[in-house]
Amino acid sequence: MGKTKLIIALDTPDLKTAAALLKKLKGLPLIYKVGSSLFTLAGPRAVDLVHECGGKVFLDLKFYDIPNTVRSAVESAERLGVYSVSLHLSGGARMLAAAASLKKRPLLWGITVLTSFDEEAFAGSGFVGGIEKNILRLAALGAENGADGIVCSPLEAAAVRNRFGKALKIITPGIRLVCGDDDQKRTLTPAGALSAGADMIVLGRPVLNAPDPVAIVREILGELDRAGVKS
Length: 231
Ligand code: C5P
Prior knowledge:
The chain has 231 residues and is of the alpha/beta class. The protein contains eleven helices and eight strands. Strands 1-2-3-4-5-6-7-8 form an eight-stranded parallel β-barrel, surrounded by seven helices. α8 (154-164) links the parallel β6 (149-151) and β7. Bound molecules: cytidine-5'-monophosphate (C5P). Residues 9, 11, 35, 60, 111, 114-115, 151, 173, 175, 184, 202-205 line the site of cytidine-5'-monophosphate (C5P).
């Protein structure tokens, strides 16, 4: 197996459920995302739990604050030993540069436009210029100020790849196995996202809510292999 391409969002209701899932998935080539719901409840214990199971952590707390505070938060994340953290690219050049300036730090993955936005909701929130244009603008800001990767939907992965080549890793949530009707609005299948140019995909509910999460994960890893993208 090659590099890990699949990130599982540990959006579980509690630590016990997360531990049970980690036990089942142990040994599979996965990274685990600890986000605001589990971290708010369990704090660093959630990160430690993944580490105890031998996994790497993407700490998805989407930092957005003044430069000094974000820099300190990234420094704290480094102390937790996480592999990567997310921060909002719209926090601006000085915020990004402050985080990137740390000598030892996790990878910095910049949030562009949340995958729950469609064009109408995006415009309704006061943004102008459309989703893709804003993503490319934010990605450029990230590339210029030390971000290692960007988070966007799979629908914009090709445009980002074309513009930035290999300079930025592309991480895409908004992954669905079948067309769904939930809060994610800009979606593709796992293999579709990687074919479009994503380096890593993030999957939560389709795995967490499955009767057999291990079977679903194995199926996706198989799908990625069949599509010629080694997991
Ligand atoms: O359950 P689902 O597959 O939609 O989970 C996607 C995960 O990715 C969630 O934890 C969500 O917070 C996160 N995420 C996202 N869109 C972003 C960044 C992170 O959906 N732009």
